[in-house]
Amino acid sequence: MSVSAQYYSLLRRIVVLRKHLLPLDLDDPFAGISDPQWEDRTLGFIVLVHAEIEHYLETVCQELAKASVEAYTKKQSVGRVVFSLYAICASEWSELGKRPENLKKPCNEVGVETRINMALQEYLKVVSNNNGIKEENLKWLLVPLSIRLNKDLDDEWNLAMNEFGGMRGNVAHMSRNKITFAANPKDIYNTVRSRILTGLKKLDIQLANLIPIP
């Protein structure tokens, strides 16, 4: 199955960022961690790529949730996503931890269709408040859509997302002198290309398979 337009858009953007911020020759020994200019550009690459990945994840998750509830409204057919959204909202999000304070308690005095739409609105709030790509963030984005982190996603990919999210946090919230990892352009790019994008492609196809047939 082909990947989504959003995934292709993410790939194109990362290609542009690689062109703008990383050395043309990643094997150039003078364009590594010993060069402060390339080091700073690589740190910028981390922050911007992280932002693009976060935006991609939020967009595809929102679109799937909306499409699933819309299909239910039209056909009255409960698919995996609608069932999962409904169940997690009815449980006050207890499966994921503490219910976010900006979400209302579920109301059982309204019809099922209304409750499903309420669940959708709650989920969209959760997505809009997301800030990251680590496993904890993925839990709130994906579990309500029936994606199981420990079964449907690769452990190595989860690790890569945690590591990259941690690097971005260091860059965004610490002085350059306090950053604890080596900003080697080749290593960072290979992490994004080989570890992160490969897993995102698999997830993209999984999410596409959940989109209701019109």
Describe this structure in words.
This protein has 214 residues and is mainly α. It is built from eight helices and no strands. The protein has helices at residues 5-21, 36-75, 80-90, 112-128, 135-142, 149-152, 155-173, 185-210.
Relevant terms:
mainly alpha; 214 residues; single chain
The unreliable regions are none
Q: Sheet with the most strands?
A: none
Structural class label:
mainly alpha
Tally the beta strands. Answer: 0
Distance N to C terminus? 17 Å
Helical residue percent band: 55-70%
Q: What would you call the shape?
A: elongated
Report strand %.
under 5%
The Rg value, from CA coordinates, equals: 19 Å
Order of helices and strands: HHHHHHHH
Overall mean pLDDT score?
Answer: 90
Number of helical runs?
8
